[in-house]
Amino acid sequence: MNVRIRNAPTTCNQDTKLLPYLEQLCKEVRTIGESRFFSVTTEIGYSDPLAILESIHQSNEAVCYLERPTNEFSIACGEFLADAKFEGLDRFKKAKQWSKNIFKKTFVAGDHKIPGTGPTMFMAASFEPTKYCVDCPPSLQIFLPRWQVLRKGGLHYLISNIKISPDSSPKNLDAELYSRVWKLNGMRFALSKAIDPEQVTVGKPIENFHYEYAVQKALEEIKAGKLSKVVLARQLTFQTNQELPPFSIAHALRDRFPDCYTFCLSTPNSGMMVGATPEMLLRASGTVLETEAVAGSAPRGPSAGRDAHWGKTLLARKKEVHEHRVVIDSILRRLKSIGLENCHEGKPRLLRLANLQHVRTPLRVESHNNIHPFDALSALHPTPAMGGSPREVALPLVRKLENSPRGWYSGITGWIDNRGRGEFVVPIRCGKLSQKSLTLYAGAGVVSGSSPAQEKVETDWKLKAMLDVITGKSDFSGEK
To answer: Which of 249, 314, 358, 473 could form a disulfide with 298 if both were Cys (CB 3.0 to 4.6 A apart)?
Structure first.
């Protein structure tokens, strides 16, 4: 539980006088003899979290941005105030304890009834539980940012976090907070700061491995009865003549895929991952946890009839039904393993995106056992939609057949606030932007009945859609 001091402002705007409260906090911290954190939520005027990032982001600075336009929800943050890195199979358990400790040491002011307001942790976890290479991102990185902005419907908030040490000056802290509110609330957005992504020259792609051959080897393992499903992901790396603009790309993605979660993710020395994912791994709200199974893919049709034909085929085709059921059953088993039973399974339905359609089944369970969202993440990740089933057989096979670590692709990113509310997605349909390169990622589920050629075609659909949004190209034929 957060430490509370008398007279904490319950609602804040840009005119709220925080100095008297900060004087109390500094006195308390001097008495304690060790540093604490202070988080203030301020309601502000209209803001676009992505536009704020575009205006103030500095190279190699930590950011996390998530937006789902159809939900009228957008959140973004920047800069480490407190952070930690964890490795190994117990990384989520360690992150849970660390975040609880930070929340416990945080004083809170302002109205934070809306999820994502108040002190909020942002987290990025790689697909692999261990960092396998120097250039790979941390296995799990979690941080309390210096600032975050949130838009929910017509409401807009700035959350400012500062560290209070025993020798802190209340006046200096007050000036820092006032400056941050003034800077972000009064921001004049640049009309055009970034270059046009379509003006960047993109070379021919380099594949990380022979995909159809790997699918064939996976099918041999499935036929031998060693596993029921494995997901193999392609990586295409393109050299570019200059760095691509991540926030312009994210803007194009959120317009084209409003039913997906558009995201930008960066930690120091790890590049920038940008994408639009349909995969929501976990949503926590009070005692209710929600997840979903998304598996199976088909193209969109050029007419209503053709589109419906593809959708009906996707819902009924034996291979797709089997693949989807494997994912659902695995999720149910994993939730049950941490004491979450009586999970409500919704009806399968089509998730129709701009270029593809998938089968989606929502799952909802009420937790009566104080299950922390990070416990659920540890149980769920990676789902069969990202790794395969059974997990203990599929994951070593993925590492054997794929030529390089996935990093953030098919890992986890998201946020959790001090009331246990949060949302976490799986970064897919994405690209990693480095100084003069672009790496695109896309995977497909391999089950009995899969065809190596068809699985490659499925990944081509996904890769070409991303390449088109990012660069204006829709094929892999070389420089434009």
So the answer is: 314
Residue 316 parent element (H or E): helix 304-316
Please state, in angstroms and rounded to a whole number, the distance separating the CA atoms of residues 5 and 173.
Answer: 17
Q: How far apart are CA 469 and CA 313, in angstroms?
A: 27
What architecture (CATH level 2) is domain 197-471? Answer: 4-Layer Sandwich (3.60)
What value does the CA radius of gyration of the chain take, rounded to a whole number of Å?
23
Q: H helices of 226-287, where?
A: 246-256
Enclosing H/E stretch for 236: strand 229-239
Q: What are phi and psi of 155, to 5 degrees?
A: -100, 145
Amino acid at residue number 405:
P
- Written as one letter, the residue type at 246 is P
234 backbone φψ class: left, alpha, beta (φ>0; ψ -120 to 50): beta
The single residue listed with the structure tokens 């290479």 is 133
Q: Which two tokens stand for residue 165?
A: 């040490």
Phi, psi of 175 (to 5 degrees): -65, -40
Q: How distant, in Å, are the alpha carbons of 22, 31, 56, 438 from that of 168? A: 10, 13, 26, 44
Phi-psi region at 388: left, alpha or beta (left = phi > 0; alpha = psi -120 to 50) = left
Does pLDDT of 269 surpass 60?
yes
3-state helix, strand, coil in the chain (%, to 5): 30, 30, 35
CA distance linking residue 191 with residue 228, whole number of Å: 52
Summarised one tens digit per residue, pLDDT across range 285-302 is 978 999 999 877 888 888
Q: What is the pLDDT of residues 302-344, one digit of tens each?
A: 899 998 998 888 888 888 888 888 889 889 999 999 999 889 9
Residue where the block lists tokens 């003899």: 33
Q: Prior bond to 197 cis, omega within 30?
A: no
Structure tokens at 28: 């308390």
Return left, alpha or beta for 232; rule: phi > 0 is left, psi -120 to 50 is alpha, else beta: beta
The tokens 């921001």 sit on which residue? 187
Helices (H), 77-192: 91-104, 170-185
Rounded Cα distance between 202 and 433, Å, is 12
Widest pairwise Cα distance in the chain: 72
Q: How many whole angstroms separate alpha carbon 40 and alpha carbon 54? A: 23
Annotated domain spans of the chain: 19-185, 197-471
